[in-house]
Amino acid sequence: MSVHHQGVPSLLERIATTMSGAIGRVRADLAGADPVVRRSERADFQCNAPLALAKRVGVKPRDLAADVVARLDLDADPVLASVEPSGPGFLNVTVTDRAVWAQVAARLADPRLGVGEPELGRKVVVDYSAPNIAKEMHVGHLRTTIIGDSLARVIGFLGADVLRQNHLGDFGTQFGMLIQYLDEHPDAAWHQDELGAGTSAVSALDGLYRAARAEFDADAGFADRARSRVVALQSGDPATVAVWQDIVAESERSFTAIYDRLGVLLTPEDSVGESFYNPMLADTVEELVEAGLAVESDGALVFYSQEVTGPEGRPVTLMVRKRDGGYGYDTTDLATIRYRLRELKATRLVYVTDSRQALHFQLVFEAARRAGWLTDGAGAEHAAYGTILGPDGTPFKTRSGGTVRLMDLLDDAVSRARAVVEEKNPDLDPAELDRIAESAGIAAVKYADLSTSRVKDYAFDVDRMVSFTGNTGVYLQYAHARISSILRLAGDPDVTVDPTVAPHPAERELALVLDGFGAVVTEVAATLEPHRLCGYLYELARAYTAFYDHCPVLKADEPVRGNRLALCRLTARTLGHGLGLLGITAPERM
Ligand code: ARG
Fold it and tell me: Where is the Arginyl tRNA synthetase N-terminal domain (predicted)?
């Protein structure tokens, strides 16, 4: 027997099951068809099946709708209050007051808030963040880090065994040059403990690499020594490898500082950089050659796509082995996908990178399919995202045109959040203000990113992000804190729900929005689109506000007060949990 947690089924799911049964009783040939039940403006729910299905069996939608209603036994149904044909062939569905409250009570008793574990038993790789060693993390790494982390959380919560993979760019000829330069400039400071708090090892290494590059171009002698150093690194010369390891470790410390500040799940244990696959490259290539998938072209080995063609029908390829015998980014990704499928036995691979790499991954996936690594039981998806733009609509840059350091961007967001929080709450003591500003500033940045549809570009507008109003992370945090304070004022009582009370329309609406939480979380995992959860949480916060405007909580008498406190508590939990799945904190006070 499976110990699969199904969660408390939602009202929508229960209605769908009932409607589907009735449809099957009307017409056996429609048994099992999607009953197309949705929330509705006109009633609580709407069932669109008659309209959607009538054509398939050659009947009139209205006739099918009437037949379905005739097959329902409303008196015996604990959920359905009324089901009425409407329009060209919809059914308007109203649920009983009792079912509304019973659902709130059941959700409150469910630690998973109605979210099942449909991913139990699956092994899912989420490849995200992947900054490059000895380089500062910049605005380009923000989206992969934030989106990937949210997807890892959501898919993990649905029961999958999630393998976070930080595919660090930790290999390449540039490190030979850098190591040679460090060797010749032993006084250069780049270890974090030799540097001040205001800077980082990667920032120092970034500068040293630039200096090395300049020397490489200017001094033929240095260029030669740097080239021999590349050979030394690749052939495993112990002294050279030791410096490289040191560079990797120091860089990781800088990345960890960013991850900690952003509150993402990545730890050094999730780092499986490009170099990890080096020992597998030759075998991977050999396997592709044997399968006829890597063929010679101009002294190199290339993979030709059968699915994609370039402009004027030109072939599109992956570079499997360069003419000089070297391997690059493409080969590493081929070895990586093979390893993840064969050795890690992952059943789903999610790659979170910007959309400019779409073709690269399309080809890697095609190669993996044709090589037989990616089989029908497994899937690989590129969760591609758009560019962060500056106020002028071009890619986000500093005022002087440089790349924006991620740490600076976060500092800026936090300081603007501090101004907004302080204005709203001038009496906060400084330590509390610091804490709230940090959490609001980070929430603002993360939410702004997650709430835009993933594939779209968006403009980085700090003032809008840190606002307490509108669809922002700060607004949702604040909504959560406000509800928490009401619950505190009520003394955080044990609440009991009285299902015989007729709900106010605003209570009913809030309860029905709460009912949709599990569905949206499942949808995020299926589509890899966290903005759906953002949209849901925003809708929830607004339904709560409407409820709070119409329905006094603390001043109400029992049993109404208990029911309202139950709605408050369930809303706070759902908001808090939903923000948590986005990787955003939900403080109790703001
Ligand atoms: N380090 C790469 C970059 O900065 C991203 C790596 C993404 N993952 C992968 N398996 N290729 O563009």
Answer: 13-95
pTM to 2 decimals? Answer: 0.95
Whether 132 is in the pocket of ligand 1, judged by its Cβ within 6 Å, is yes
- For residue 339, the tally of other CB atoms under 10 A from its CB is 17
Residue 402 class from Cβ within 10 Å (0-12 exposed, 13-18 middle, 19+ buried)? Answer: exposed
Q: Judge if ipTM > 0.90.
A: yes
CB 169 less than 6 A from any atom of ligand 1: yes
Q: Which residues pair with 95 in a beta bridge?
A: 80
Q: Using the mean position of ligand 1's atoms as its centre, give its distance from the Cα of residue 367 in Å.
A: 18
Residue 167 beta carbon below 6 angstroms from any ligand 1 atom: yes
Spatial separation of the C-alpha atoms in residues 160 and 121, rounded to whole Å: 6
Q: Domains, the chain, ranges and CATH? A: 11-95 (3.30.1360.70), 172-270 (no CATH), 473-581 (1.10.730.10)
pLDDT classification of 234: cutoffs 50, 70, 90: confident
Query: Cα 466 vs. chain centroid, distance in angstroms?
Result: 21
Q: How far is CA 26 from the centre of its chain?
A: 42
Distance (Å, rounded) from C-alpha 542 to C-alpha 536?
A: 10
User: Please, what sign has the CA dihedral across residues 559, 561, 563, 569?
Assistant: negative
Each residue of 376-386: b (16+ CB within 10 Å) or e?
Answer: eebebebbbbb
Question: Atom 9 of ligand 1 has which residue's CA nearest to it?
Answer: 167
Instruction: Calculate how far, in angstroms, residue 366's C-alpha sits from the geometric centre of ligand 1.
Output: 18
**443 contacts: CB under 8 Å, gap ≥ 6:** 473, 474, 476, 477, 579, 584, 585
Instruction: Identify whether the C-beta of residue 128 lies closer than 8 Å to the C-beta of residue 145.
Output: yes
- Does the pLDDT of residue 399 top 70, yes or no? yes
Which are the contacts of 192, defined by CB distance < 8 A and separation ≥ 6? 200, 201, 250, 253, 254
In angstroms, the CA 514 to CA 527 distance is 21
Q: How far is the CA of 170 from the centre of ligand 1 (A)?
A: 11
pLDDT of residue 402: 82
337 C-beta closer than 6 A to ligand 1: no
Distance CA 319, CA 294 (A): 9
Distance CA 340, CA 375 (A): 13
352 strand-pairing partners: 383
In contact, 367 and 293? CB cutoff 8 Å: yes
CA of 433 to the centre of ligand 1 (A): 37
In this structure, which residue's CA is closest to atom 6 in ligand 1? 130
Q: 103 CB less than 6 Å from ligand 1? A: no
Determine the pLDDT at residue 6. Answer: 63
Are 136 and 203 in contact by the 8 Å Cβ rule? The answer is yes
**Token digits for 335?**
């070895």
Compute the distance between CA of residue 452 and CA of residue 530 in angstroms, rounded to an integer: 9
